Amino acid sequence: MAENIQLEIVTPEKYVVSEPAQIVMAPGTLGEFGVLSGHTPFLTSLQVGKVHYKDASGKEHFVFVSGGFAEALPDRVTILAESAEREEDIDYQRAKAAYDRAQERLASQKDDLDFARAQSALQRALVRLNMVQGSSSASH
Ligand code: ATP
Predict the structure, then answer these.
(1) Are residues 21 and 68 in the same domain?
(2) Are residues 56 and 108 both part of a single domain?
(3) Distance CA 63, CA 29 (A)
(4) Are residues 66 and 110 in the same domain?
(5) Which residues, other chains included, contact 125 with Cβ-Cβ below 8 Å and sequence gap of 6+?
(6) What CATH number is given to the structural domain containing 73?
(7) Does residue 47 sit in the same domain as residue 65?
(8) What's the pTM?
(9) Number of independent structural domains in the chain
């Protein structure tokens, strides 16, 4: 059987994941990539999106990441993100409120609108909402 790799997903606030994984898929800025044990080392930036991995028992997990960086080594993947949370920890109402706020800002056409910031907030909210709506455990 193939060996596991150690997956670490870290933000400035907390350790979100620290466990062995059979495979890790992550949203690189150049496209989604997968890492198995023994992978050639590389470093890449990430898009806002979801990390998908199988733990040592084969169970699948999804984790929101707000961009950041990933370093793959033959026995380890480290993801440093500004924010990240496991799918089951995503608060639907909070993401919906963030989505509505960003939409309002973008529609407001105010002179002091920070367009890039509002777009990033919208993108984070959209991915979170998609993850919750796509999961069978959604309850809202
Ligand atoms: P908000 O405006 O609601 O804070 P945001 O996209 O600006 O949304 P982030 O800066 O990405 O928030 O994250 C700040 C912290 O809040 C992080 O710890 C992140 O994991 C957490 N967080 C943000 N939105 C959610 C959510 N919908 N469910 C659970 N945790 C969240």
Answers:
(1) yes
(2) no
(3) 17
(4) no
(5) 95, 96, 98, 99, 102
(6) 2.60.15.10
(7) yes
(8) 0.93
(9) 2
Pocket of ligand 1 contains residue 91 by CB under 6 Å: yes
Q: What is the pLDDT along the chain (140 residues), one digit of tens a residue?
A: 579 999 999 999 999 999 999 999 999 999 999 999 999 999 999 999 999 999 999 999 999 999 999 999 999 999 999 999 999 999 999 999 999 999 999 999 788 888 999 999 999 999 999 999 977 444 45
Tell me which residue of 121, 64, 124 sits closest to 89, measured CA to CA.
Answer: 64
Which amino acid is residue 123, in one-letter code? Q
Q: In the numeric block, which tokens belong to residue 33?
A: 């990539």
Q: Identify the domain containing residue 116 by its residue range.
A: 91-137
**Are 43 and 78 part of one and the same domain?**
yes
Domain check: are 83 and 95 in the same one? no
Which residue lies with its CA nearest to atom 5 of ligand 1?
A: 121
| Residue 9 near ligand 1, beta carbon < 6 Å | no
Compute, in angstroms, the gap from residue 98 CA to the centroid of ligand 1: 9
Q: How far is the CA of 41 from the centre of ligand 1 (A)?
A: 30
* Burial grade of 6 (CB within 10 A; 0-12, 13-18, 19 or more): middle
Q: Are residues 48 and 31 in the same domain?
A: yes
105 CB within 6 A, ligand 1: no
